[in-house]
Each structure stands twice: as C-alpha cells, then as structure tokens.
C-alpha cells in the first residue's frame, strides 16, 4: 500500500504541526487520519463506530458523512512508528483540482461536558472569530482559478473572522470563474447554479442535513465542520458538477440525550441563508451587499473590499 | 382610566420587586410596562417603534408580537410619580383564567455588543439553567386546574433548570385535564391536540415564526421569550381554543446586520421539537420518556418524577 501526505488539506489543525503526524492517503480513495493521543482520538472512533452502525440514520443523510472503514495500525507520516489511524473515505484528494472550503459550524464550539480550561479557550476563540456573530467560521479554503496551476489559498487566520459582507464575497468567489485573488474583479458567480443550486447541489444537500438536525436527538456535533468540495475543471468543461457537502471532524461529539443540536442547527441555517442569497440574487453587486450588511458606523465603500484576501 | 396590577405575570423580572414599579393593565385590554431606567427601556421602545412600522414584516408574523400603542406618561404602580410606560396589547390578563408559560429562547442570552459584566452574568446563568443544554429555559408558568380556584404556579427557580425529560412533563401538564400538581397522576395530554395542534394551534404559530427566522436578518431577539397562553375553561366547554404564542421582552434586541438570528432560531427549533413529540406521541407514558431521555448514570425510575414541581 503506497501512502502519501495529501495535497489538499485546508483546515489548519488537520495538518502536521506541533510534531504531530499528518493524515495520509492511498491511491484507492482512502484517507488515514492519525488518532489524536488524548481522548479526542477515541471519541472520534466512538462516533464513527456508533454512526456507521446506527440504523436510524437515513441513507440520504449518511451520504453526507465520510464512509468509515474502521481503524488501522500504520506507520505514521512523521516516521514515529506504528500508530492507529481512522480509515475514511477520501473526500478531497480523490479529485485532481478540488476547490475546498471548510466551515466550522456553530456559534459555540465548546460543550458543557468539556473541561473548564477547554471551555474558556473555545469561548475566547468563538468571540474572536466570526463563530459568535455568524454562527460559523471559515476554517480554511482553497479555490482553483481557471488555469490549472493557479490556486488561491488564503491563510486560515485571514478567513476565520470575516464580516457578513466578506463571507458573502468568499462564498461567491468559491463559485466564480474569474480568478479569485484578483482584487479588481467582482466575483461573477457563474458556477453558483451548478455548484450550489439544483436538486443535487450543495444547497440541496445542506437542506437535507437541516431537516435531519431538526429531528435527530442522538448526536450533538460540537466543533464539526461542513466541507464543501467540487472540481472547477468539470464545470468549465460543461460536465455535471461533482459538488459535495461532507461533515468532518467528530472528536467532540456528545450524546444528544433527547435534545436536538440547536447550536449546530442554528449555524447551519446561517450558512444556508448566505448560500440561498447568492442563488436568488447572483447578479447583486458587491456594493449593494455591503450597503445592506455594513455597520452604520463604518464607511460603506471601505467595507466593500475584502481586505487582505 | 382605571389601572390595576395584573394577576397573571409569570416571569419574575416583570413583577414589581427591588423597588421597581410593576406593570399595569386597564379594562380595555392594554398592558402598561414601565420603561426601565437604564437603556433597556429606550431599547425596547426603539424595537417596538421599528417593528411596528416595518413594512417588511408579514402580517402572519406580526400577529405573533403584542400590538404596540406607543408610550404614555402615567402614575407608576408604586406611587413614585409619573413615569413613561410602553402601552401594549394585554396578551394575558384579558383572559379570565389563563394558563401561561414564559419560555426564554436561546442557549445564549447575551450578545457581543453588551458590557463584559453583563456578558459574564448571562454566561453564568445560561450555564446554570437549561438554556445552554436545551436552547431555552422556562422562565415562569401557571396552569389552571379543572376547578376555577385551583392554580399551579411553581416558583420560577424550580423550572429554569429542568432536564429534557422534566421539560417534557411540564409541557404535557400544560395541556392536561388532570390537576397539574398531583404527583401521582401522569399528565393525560387531553388538550394537546386543541392547544398545541391544528392549523391555528401553538405549534403552527411557532412554525410560522421559525420560517420567518430562517429568512429575516433585521433583528436579533436576544433574551426574548415566547409566551404561550390559553384559557382551559374554553377547551373544557368544547369551545374553540384561544391558544396563542406571543413574543415578549425586547430590551436586548440588536440589529441583524444581514445575519439570521441563529441563536434564537436554534432554541425555537428545540421548543418545536419538544411540542411536536408530545403531539405525535400523546399516549407515550412518562416512564418511556424518561428511559429515552435520561442520563445513563441516573436511575430511570427516579428520573420519572418531576421532583419539587
């Protein structure tokens, strides 16, 4: 089995750093995620085991989660020896030029059962990023331009605390044909209908997820992300879009105990609202969005740029 | 104009205490709420003024808010002299024997624009009550029994931190014909269909509210309550139920700035889920609810009583 480090990880904490091994992929579409040493690793295994064998999860919801292939002891990417890995469906790297956005859902990433130290750290970060105001934060993204070699991958710190107007611009850039890091061009949203829209598009997938969260009281998906992925090349060639939404990162899942996950649901509805607005008003100019969204105390025209992006 | 102190206030902070004057009512169905001295009073006036003149609010949503009749200088209930009052539709006291429940919506009652002191106090209270876990807390309630003179009005402190199982019991008692403070009788839910159900029942009203919150980005209703009111006598006599849901308490409303109120929406969806379950499984016995909802570490049968209620 040939394993390699994947090219397309967009959220910081999933990459190798702080001496931790990075995930690995094989050429058969599997993603190997090293189990974290603390109880996060075992919690994530526990969630995947429970979820994959839970007959109450309908098929149209199950396909919004990566397929789980169990755990496996393999050599860690940093050469530190054999280590247990989660074996999952590789959502991203099986595509050649995937545009990817990782959106961490929820205005609150902590949960009552966590340690006070963890709660305070999350509480601080939620207030420092857009999580508190928007109900989600963009944890990372990469967008391919029209030419294969060009990739826009802003630093994660730059996208975690965007205003409503700037999040809308980024969500538009994600589905635009003009090159995303050009500050002089407004995103044209020319792929919005095929990526976000339609009966199999990302919005339809998120709405199925929403309907399930309005009802299910089994799991609370604290600090989970929705990953949106698609291959721009396909859309450019006029092929059917392969756009997918997938939930990832389950190290902090807790039992629902008969209560819906109102924190995840609220944040998901906020993402849905942003994407819906792009679909219903694709021609809306950036300035108009800013006039509507900007704070009264700031200058509207200044607010219309996505500074630093 | 004859004014009197209303009989049926259920949420603590709306009653006279700490030397503050209480609200007043007249016999023409109006409710006079003294403006609070700090900026909460002016904030609530600002919200009612904005909302009542906002042509983007559809009629079916507007009727879920008390009608606003402006402000008026009247003698305060505590004889402290003339004082400005909000003049509102009297939702509760115009009924002779109203059963009332005040549910404060949202897992978070604070908001970023508030002072750090206020944030920390709310944060603490949200964690100490059911707000954090359930996405709402019962702020107060009164339920009339079958005989006119009997009223069950538990102390507010006893209902603010209920478990999921106990909230369900209280929501069942609210629509049951057997007397609510009898610990030996399971609530029979005999009024569930006429109060919660049907095309004009409370669930239908909450679902209309939910649809609006999925879309509107004008207001964030921090620390607001949904008041559920109905007259049990009417249902007992076989008359059409007058059940109503009304939003109240807008002293902490902030501008939406293009973002949905995901905190309110999440909490509202949680209330809706509880009420839906009562409607879809009215015959479900208390024990069964407890087995499903109880924490693994507690004894199921113990958990099936609503101790102290």
Automatic annotation (TrEMBL), chains A, B:
Top-level taxon in the UniProt lineage: Eukaryota
Catalytic activity: 1D-myo-inositol 1,3,4,6-tetrakisphosphate + ATP = 1D-myo-inositol 1,3,4,5,6-pentakisphosphate + ADP + H(+); 1D-myo-inositol 1,4,5-trisphosphate + 2 ATP = 1D-myo-inositol 1,3,4,5,6-pentakisphosphate + 2 ADP + 2 H(+)
Keywords: ATP-binding, Kinase, Nucleotide-binding, Transferase
Annotated stretches, region: Disordered: 1-29
Record flagged with keyword Metal-binding: no
Metal-binding keyword on record: no
GO terms of biological process kind: inositol phosphate biosynthetic process
GO cellular component, one term: cytoplasm
Pfam families cross-referenced by the UniProt entry: IPK (PF03770)
Family according to the record: Belongs to the inositol phosphokinase (IPK) family.
Family matches, as PANTHER family: INOSITOL POLYPHOSPHATE KINASE, INOSITOL POLYPHOSPHATE MULTIKINASE
UniProt name for this protein: Inositol polyphosphate multikinase
Species in which this protein is naturally found: Salix koriyanagi
